Amino acid sequence: MWFQALLESKPKNIVLLVAAVGSKVAGFLLGYLNKKESYVEALAVHPQYRGLGLGSSLLRAFENKAKKAGAEKVELSVKSGNTSALGFYLKQKYSIKGVVLLLSLDLSKVKFSQNTEFKVKLIDSSKASKLRARIKAKPSVWWSLITEEADSQIYSRIKNEKILAVYKKRRFKGLMEFEPDTITVIDYLALPYQCPKEALSALLEGLKICSHKWRIKSIVIPVDSTKEAFISTLINVGFKVTGVEYRLIKRLK
Fold it and tell me: Three-class SS of residue 203?
């Protein structure tokens, strides 16, 4: 559904490269291009065609496009258990810059303290785009800063995408975007520097109320390991670390 929405919306700063062997698609790369930085969302080669250098060729082609666009670096994320992918990128002269923690929460086992000062509303994508520009906070994970503009266009075409906004005395305080599933990965989360725990609790309470209708049992939030206050807030609410991803970077000369 997300990929179909991508093809339909055609954001200007998204690049889709395809490698073919004869008349067959053998691999692809999906990436984001910004003025100073770029991001590889996905790179895959069919098992039948691995070892032919297609992955390296796709990556070099994207790096060249990024350089021409003015990007100073290419970044990407690799799951800690995917050692073959990690080895591939290290061979391509990428280096590990940081770590992203995957924090999970079973909604059925957690009780949130209700705070009547905070109100949660389900909003549409056009409203969310305006609110993102107003929020005085950074998102939970680094890649959102690169992908946010294009993703907002894509999510507007996904009917099942949900967006919750939290307010304190009618003042906007935070945002959470996700596509409901049994295990729901939060696509975008931004909390205020002030009262982040209260804002998060309100968003999670709103999510829990709707979890039965949306058939959500647990949620996963990716968070930069450097965001100590953010992580502390999630841990105190009841989240547990269930996975790790490496943040890789290559500076373009």
Answer: helix
Query: Is there a contact between 49 and 21 (Cβ–Cβ < 8 Å)?
Result: yes
Burial label, 191 (beta-carbon count in 10 A; 0-12, 13-18, 19+): buried
pTM: 0.87
Measured CA to CA, the distance from residue 140 to residue 229 in angstroms comes to 11
Question: Is residue 3 predicted with pLDDT exceeding 70?
Answer: no
pLDDT tens per residue across span 150-203: 776 666 666 778 999 988 888 888 899 998 999 999 999 988 877 788 888 888
The domains of the chain, with CATH numbers, are 2-97 (3.40.630.30), 102-246 (3.40.630.30)
**Residue spans of alpha helices (H) in the chain:** 2-9, 54-68, 83-91, 125-132, 144-155, 196-214, 228-237
